[in-house]
């Protein structure tokens, strides 16, 4: 199986003619980690609900682990693990009890189920808390337990829906490492929806960005970054009166870029390797510098340019990036 997830022309409409997902195509190779990004209401959750058989598509087709999500939904469910952000966990049960119960629900023989529970408790670092009620767990512990519960039946494909939302930085990094280790050691395919661009950059081999129900960009993180242009070099001259002179020197190295007040900037195709030449040219022009900053394109830049919005907490559209358009209601 070369592709663990195949999505072709997938559509989901709701009452009122709203297309939450509008004919998207996605191919995720077996063993990959695929990051799925989009603003709130862009269609991420609706897509995941269709791929995990919780919602029936209106049109198109999708297969997960080789099984059609409509005609062979039972086989899909047996092949996947799902850790949803709003998963309900009984706070009065212990971590060990929940893992053993999950094994029973998957018809795993009792001895094997108990062994898997112990292995997973150790794997996610919850052995010492195994007999505590889950209601006493921290947010990070609960998310690690969610991950363990999704892995009890050794799924071929794992869906993680914003797995680190609300976690502190330490817990977030710990969960990242666990996902990396899982993918590296078992070859599990991971479909990751996230609100954190850094998370996708750290974990995903390929990234898809959805907006208004359509895929607006897809590729490796490095491909997406390079697609929006060269790094930006910003020079702040020591003498504010020489900003225009600085901009004139920079113009010989590439197209001008937006700069903060008191500075000039240029798109520098050579990146860090081209800084020395720029500095020499400024010296020859008698321009002393107060600051030199090189900004490499980031997934945040890609996201803004492709959607007109910042992903984390910034709903303001950016000029020249499709901003100012009225967004439709999405599910």
Question: Notable features of this structure?
Answer:
single chain; 331 residues; alpha/beta; 4-stranded antiparallel β-sheet; 11 helices; 14 strands; elongated; disordered C terminus
Describe this structure in words.
There is one protein chain. With 331 residues, the chain is an alpha/beta fold. It has eleven helices and 14 strands. The strands form three sheets. It has a six-stranded mixed β-sheet, sandwiched between helices. Helix 3 (95-105) packs across helix 4 and helix 4 (110-123) packs antiparallel against helix 5. The protein is elongated and about 80 Å long. The two termini are 32 Å apart.
At a glance:
This protein is an alpha/beta fold and 331 residues long.
List the helices and strands and how they pair.
Elements lengths: L2 E12 L3 E12 L3 E5 L6 H8 L7 E6 L2 E2 L4 H7 E4 L11 H11 L4 H14 L15 H13 L5 E5 L7 H18 L2 E5 L3 H7 L2 E6 L2 E6 L1 H7 L4 E6 L5 H8 L5 E2 L6 E4 L7 H10 L4 E7 L3 H9 L24
Parallel strand pairs: 3-8, 3-9, 6-7, 7-8
Antiparallel strand pairs: 1-2, 1-4, 4-5, 9-10, 11-13, 11-14, 12-13
Helix pairs in contact: 3-4, 4-5
């Amino acid at each position: 199986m070369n592709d663990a997830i195949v999505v072709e022309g997938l559509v989901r409409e709701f009452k009122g003619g709203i297309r939450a997902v509008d004919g998207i195509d996605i191919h995720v190779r077996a063993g990959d980690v695929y990051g799925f990004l989009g603003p709130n209401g862009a269609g991420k959750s609706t897509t995941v609900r269709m791929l995990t058989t919780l919602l029936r598509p209106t049109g198109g087709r999708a297969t997960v682990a080789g099984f059609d999500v409509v005609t062979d939904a039972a086989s899909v469910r047996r092949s996947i693990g799902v850790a949803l952000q709003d998963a309900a966990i009984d706070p009065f049960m212990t971590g060990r009890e929940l893992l053993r119960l999950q094994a029973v629900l998957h018809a795993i023989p009792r001895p094997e189920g108990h062994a898997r529970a112990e292995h997973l408790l150790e794997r996610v670092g919850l052995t010492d808390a195994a007999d505590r009620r889950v209601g006493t767990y921290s947010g990070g512990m609960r998310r690690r337990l969610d991950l363990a519960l999704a892995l009890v039946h050794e799924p071929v494909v794992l869906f993680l829906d914003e797995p680190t939302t609300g976690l502190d930085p330490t817990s977030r990094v710990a969960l990242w490492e666990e996902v990396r280790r899982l993918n590296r050691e078992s070859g599990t395919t991971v479909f990751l929806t996230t609100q954190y661009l850094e998370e996708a950059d750290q974990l995903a081999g390929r990234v898809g960005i959805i907006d208004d129900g359509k895929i607006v960009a897809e590729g490796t993180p490095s491909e997406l970054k390079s697609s929006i242009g060269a790094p930006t070099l910003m020079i702040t001259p020591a003498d504010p009166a020489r900003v225009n002179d600085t901009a004139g020197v920079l113009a010989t190295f590439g197209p001008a870029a937006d700069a903060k007040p008191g500075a000039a900037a240029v798109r520098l195709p050579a990146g860090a390797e081209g800084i020395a030449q720029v500095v020499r040219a400024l010296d020859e022009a008698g321009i002393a510098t107060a600051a030199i900053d090189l900004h490499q394109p980031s997934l945040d830049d890609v996201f803004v340019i492709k959607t007109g919005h910042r992903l984390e907490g910034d709903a303001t559209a950016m000029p020249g990036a499709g901003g100012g358009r009225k967004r439709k209601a999405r599910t």
